[in-house]
Amino acid sequence: MLAKFAVRKMKQRGFTLVEVLVATIVLLTGVVAVAQLVPIAVTANNVSRRDSTALVIAQRELAQMLKQPVSATSFNDALNNTCNLGSAGAPGVTQGSPVVVIANRPTINFSAAAVGGWSFTTPVDVEDPYGAQYDVRWAAIMDGASSRRIIISARLLGGNRYSLPLTLDAMVQQ
């Protein structure tokens, strides 16, 4: 009778300690790999948030500029900034912030000093936990008295890395 019991016990199978150890190592490797993706995702989310904010700021300012008649040389925006729009006396000439062409697209040159009346810094948003401020600059190219092209860029001020400016380019005709 004892022999039958011993045979039955030998047929029972389970996990050995080595198999459990290997499975644990594989599981931990996967968990560590996923955990390393969290900071990357947080950084990508912050960059997207900053870019979205810069886009909204530039769009709002551009919308106000496009509402102005082509003959207007300046106006006060919703933030009470005096914004120059250029004069028809210099057709085809870029007026305002310096413009550079990158990959066949005009953009504002933020390495040059800001030009008064053609730039401003946004106030700190009290609802933004990071207290971010944005540098907004623009240039205008007049085509006589009938149309105006506006190139506007916004980018985050400060931070621990270089952030590319977001640029919008629009034209208004009379």
Number of domains: 1
Biggest sheet overview: 5 strands, antiparallel
Helix share bin: 25-40%
Task: Say how many strands there are.
Answer: 9
Write down the overall geometry.
Answer: elongated
Terminal residue distance: 107 Å
Structural class: alpha+beta
Strand percentage: 25-35%
- The low-confidence parts are none
DSSP helix count?
2
Radius of gyration: 30 Å
Order of helices and strands: HHEEEEEEEEE
The chain-level mean pLDDT equals 85
Architecture overview:
This protein has helices at residues 2-11, 17-67; strands at residues 74-76, 82-84, 94-96, 99-102, 105-108, 119-121, 134-143, 147-156, 166-173. The chain is α+β, with helices and mostly antiparallel strands and 174 residues long. The chain has one domain. The strands form 3 sheets. Strands 3, 6, 7, 8 and 9 form a 5-stranded antiparallel sheet that branches. It has a two-stranded antiparallel sheet with strand order 1-2. The longest helix is centred in the N-terminal third of the chain and has 51 residues, at 17-67. It starts with a helix and ends with a strand.
